[in-house]
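Why run this: before we spend reagent on co-expression, it is cheaper to look at a predicted model of the complex and decide which construct boundaries make sense. The entries below are exactly what would go into the expression plan.
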Amino acid sequence: MISGPLSFIKDELKSLKSDGLYNLIRTLEGPQGAWVRINGEFMLNFCSNNYLGLAADARVREAAKEAIDQYGVGPGAVRTIAGTMTLHKELEAALARFKGVPAVISFQSGFTANLAVIGALVGKGDTIYSDSLNHASIIDGCRLSRAEIKVYDHCDMASLKARLEESVSGKRLIVTDGVFSMDGDLAPLPEIVELAERYGAITMVDDAHGEGVLGSSGRGIVDHFGLHGRVDVEVGTLSKALGVVGGYVAGSKELIDYLSQRGRPFLFSSAVTPADVAACIRAVEILEADDELVTKLWDNGRYFKAAMEKLGFDIGNSQTPITPVIIGEASKAAEFSQRLFERKVFAQSIGFPTVPKGRARIRVMVSAAHSKKDLDYGIEAFEHVGKEMGLI
Ligand SMILES: *Cc1c(COP(=O)(O)O)cnc(C)c1O
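The model came back. Tokens follow.
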């Protein structure tokens, strides 16, 4: 029984539960895929970020196994001491080629990549301009940097311009998600780049949900908008469309060299394992070979969205395959998710603070691994539950 100075935890847990905000964490008893096994039953998987189905792809698994035989399982050190292996350099070269940038540095995750780069670029006396819906890892990176943070309204260029007009000394950094993960909308990157150029600010985009989704063969948001060479810092993750784990920063040779000296997670946390890195390399190669998976993802996204719209659900303004099904109150969204679960559809609800209060939702992620039959199964479950709960 918890007591004394820690007893606040009991109250916090109680209020999370009564507000419908306590995360019900499901355990997968097998690999990621269109269907996953939970509690001994196969459930349609509608909420993983495994956009292209690469997380359990046979070719990617094979690459990981080979790497274990060749390099063992652990990196043994941080990258700057003895943890850099040939594989890490190969991954960075593959990503630089894929993204069309001079250089890339890889990290343990997208989260640590954001922490590394923001703190290395700005500090006390500098100013960050941050979209109000930016990802938690950007927010934490901004806070850790100790720069002043000016939040502008979501994707609102008049709001960003007004903040930029305020006089400041020191460096300026504009940072935004590329694709906003809870809504699926895109940052107006061409306008952001223009404002940055006009006001002498560094531009940084976090492409975690653009990779493998937007641009030619999934090269991301910079490619989508044709802005090569005009975005100073691109952050990416290898854990979503690429299907494995890890993060990276893409940019100029000097920026990457600098991060190898000043990116704190690179210096103070061990490197990614050989198996993971080899799997990432194979995943990049699969994307480079052709755009079959990316095309399938978009086809599936369009098919699902059209059906949900026809049923009368509020699916927001997504410009990507991410489909938010807006329910409203968090407790109602949690109930919706539970009822879907009873119909063997796994789609978690998401509430505050991940999304604003009163905008709780089921965030549906269809993937290239789903067949039309799978999608129809999910759509039918949404229709049943939507009617039962009086939402459509
Ligand atoms: C998921 C996500 C991250 C974190 O990436 P990980 O590799 O999972 O740590 C960073 N930024 C955005 C926008 C994300 O959606």
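The first strand starts at residue 35 and ends at 38. The two ends are 45 Å apart (CA to CA). Bring this page to Monday's planning discussion.
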